[in-house]
Specification:
- This protein is of the alpha+beta class.
- It contains three helices and 15 strands.
- The chain has a six-stranded antiparallel beta barrel. The protein has a six-stranded antiparallel beta barrel with strand order 2-3-4-8-7-6.
- The longest helix is centred in the first third of the chain and has 16 residues.
- Bound molecules: arginine.
- The site of arginine (ARG) has 16 residues, from α1 and β14.
């Protein structure tokens, strides 16, 4: 099971690259299963830090020149000018989209497909938009989270043109282990979703995007990075996210050296 899941995880970005961004938006939210399974469309400017990466993943602006994404979305570390980051729009086809190339990638040191699913992408030019600060302690690793992305609307479905969002409740490690057993790296991963009923989740192509909530001052703070799950939105199988607080110090020092 573990091998299958991580295989799915690693192949997801590759699969997404081949998919054109095609979607005919329903005229009402109920007309079709929305992307970020069970979500709704995000408003323009609602999540200004959201980034779409050209390999078919999501990301968030960690600084105006660094995107935080998932390790499984990139191939390794080093100079890399092949990635395009699209930001500033919910509609990926908008003529006002900001598109910036990468210069470097830093994949989490020691990443081997299990846990520590984070990476940084350095941009060729700054993107002048609000950033998403990351959780530096465990205090926000609870409650209700927001997830967003241009990924599949349904398990096996296509990538989306318009950014979608959904809310998902925190799932404890103990409960998440009922789904995933020892495949869950509890110290490095945080789960979210509706364990009993499913129906709302991230999905293929949402990987690397942020899971976030409001902090005590009312500001968005990133607690997770979309990583993996068994299918999408299945009952009994929550979404699994990189636990950002665990890696906050490493991310900070890696970013400083990028
Ligand atoms: N690994 C997927 C990707 O590369 C994300 C899967 C998230 N799955 C889930 N059930 N929450 O896009």
């Amino acid at each position: 099971m573990k091998r299958l899941i991580s295989l799915l995880k690693r192949s997801a970005a590759v699969v997404a690259v081949g998919l054109a961004v095609v979607s005919l938006q329903p005229t009402s939210a109920s007309a079709a299963a929305p992307p970020v399974v069970g979500g709704v469309r995000a408003a323009q400017g609602e999540f200004p830090f959201m980034v779409r990466l050209s390999m078919g993943c999501g990301g968030a602006l960690y600084t105006q020149t660094i995107v935080l994404t998932a390790a499984h979305c990139v191939n390794g570390s080093g100079n890399n000018t092949s990635i395009t980051a699209t930001a500033g729009v919910v509609d990926l086809r908008s003529s006002s989209a900001i598109k910036v190339k990468s210069t470097k990638v830093l994949q989490a040191p020691g990443y081997n497909g299990t846990g520590r699913d984070w990476a940084l992408i350095k941009l060729a030019q700054p993107i002048n938009l609000p950033i998403l600060k990351i959780a530096e302690t465990t205090q926000y690793n609870t409650g209700t989270f927001t997830v967003a992305g241009w990924g599949a609307a349904t398990e096996g479905g296509g990538q989306q043109r318009y950014l979608r969002k959904a809310n998902v409740p925190f799932v404890s490690d103990a409960t998440c282990k009922q789904a995933y057993g020892s495949s869950l790296v509890a110290a490095e991963e945080i789960c979210a979703g509706y364990m009993a009923e499913g129906g709302v989740d991230t999905c293929q192509g949402d990987s690397g995007g942020p899971m976030f909530r409001k902090d005590n001052a009312g500001a968005w703070v990133q607690v997770g990075i979309t990583s993996w799950g068994e299918g999408c939105a299945r009952a009994g199988y929550p979404g699994v996210y990189t636990e950002v607080s665990t890696f906050a110090a490493q991310i900070k020092s890696a970013a400083a050296g990028l």
